[in-house]
Amino acid sequence: MQRMLIVDDEPVILDGLYAFFQKADFQDMEIIKAYSAFEAIEWLNSVKIDIVLSDICMPGMDGMELIEKIMDRWPRCKVLLLTGHNEFDYAHQAIRNPCVVDYLLKTEGMSHIRAAVERALTQISEENDFRYQHAWFRSKLPRALPQLQRQLLLDLLKRTERNDIAALQEELDAVQLPFMSNEPVIPVIIRVEEWNNYQSQADRSLIRYAVANVAEELLQDKAKVKAIDLDYQVIACFVQPKAEPSSFHTGQQEKWEQTLRFVYGTLESVQQSCVDCLNLSVSIMVSELAVEWVELSQAIAQLRLSIHEGPGLGMEKLLRVKVQRDSPYTPNILNQQSVATLHLDQIRQHVTAGDREWIESFHKWTEASKEGLQDPFFRMKIYSGAGNALIELVHELGLYESAMEEIALSRMLYFDIHTPWSDLVVFYQSAYEWIISKRSVTRIHDQSQILITIHHYIKHHLEDDLSLTRIAQEVSLNPSYLSRWYKRITGKGISDYIHDRRIERSKELLLGSACKMHEISAKVGFSDQHYFYRFFKKATGCTPQEYRDQKS
């Protein structure tokens, strides 16, 4: 949203300009008026102004002094200067100031003034345009690239639908990842087993970065690779064959076999380098086959869980894992605990976001949990994990007191490993459904409260400032967002509501009071009585006086 401030000490001219631009079809632009330079400064001190259309000659402070105040507050603001006389000195002074877009005579007419405003808007748009900022991106992007690359790869791990190959390639290219979207990828997991002397979070973060660099450095000799940290203990690597001139005579299958052999052989060197250079013990799990991008999430999960298979947990494992694609993957009991915990975390994330997809994760959690319930310690861990997750969630969402009353949260105190699993599933499913419904009701209530606050403020401040900025301050929302939100909720713009209330209040005063026309005009927010007449006639088909006479 853009804001234009019109400044002139002559009310007739100011109100005319204000009315003209209010009716103009400038999309998403708020018009504000000020009857003096001092009133203009009050606006400049309270909100960001994008364009100032100002008279030059005003008592107390002229336009050139006002420019200095504008530039001191909003350096990117565009200024259009208006004058009733062709004053060369002012014009010469003005055009030397980079913020001045144009110098206009009031006698040139509204079309010239509008054209100047359009030029100012174009300049603002160009300054915000990607092409204009290309040099900035070129200089800043390299520093942001690692984080952008990590974010995209993490996002790809969350996607469950098959990616459009062309769209995915555009995403990869945008953050300068070297991969091909139409080729599969080899997933690798590096897990830190022993931190040794690295105890602080800062040290561990730095070491994860170092491990990722070691893996990339050693693997990039014969492959395209990117390593990112998934959490405090685990680094993931993504590998594809490197395109080399010699590979033109190599078949596709042979190329992948060579790459897989190279990766398997090099991972041992990665472990050794971590020991020698970083004094760090790591385990590495790598898929025996390359997987499609859409299968990455499942493959990474299986690699992470494979560390629990067989003896040697905590030792430097080096595993080649046969990732299960279509057939269901049956983990052992330690894996089942990890899978159940993973799905419980997903439930919490979905419910916190108010996302209805929580039920899918809930079903996965019940399926992953019930397989190992015969083991009493597994059962105890599942039951306690579910209880802790729910308690933390209702506290986090501020629903603890309500939950105690409405879903009998205290029942959890009596759950133990002898409680039937079906009872537990029913309780937790109903609890999460209650949280979702509570959040929906809260959201609807909040929207209703915001609408009530907005309408109450407008009705009781018709004679005051009813700019979008001022109304947005009442409900602590971004003005541009408020405009879009209000139209989406009510089906009409907030300015339409203001106009309706002004007409409604005008009719009440015309019929229910002896106020004179200029008094009624001021009470409904019009400083110019003639503008009030035109506004009223356009809305009702008659002038205010004709309306009073007809109804009387």
TrEMBL record:
Keywords: DNA-binding, Phosphoprotein, Transcription, Transcription regulation
Entry-linked Gene3D superfamilies: 3.40.50.2300, Homeodomain-like
Domain of life of the organism encoding this protein: Bacteria
Residue positions where 4-aspartylphosphate is found in the record: 55
Presence of keyword Metal-binding: no
Keyword Ribosomal protein in record: no
HTH araC/xylS-type domain ranges (all copies): 452-550
Domain Response regulatory, residue spans: 3-121
Name of the protein this chain belongs to: Response regulator
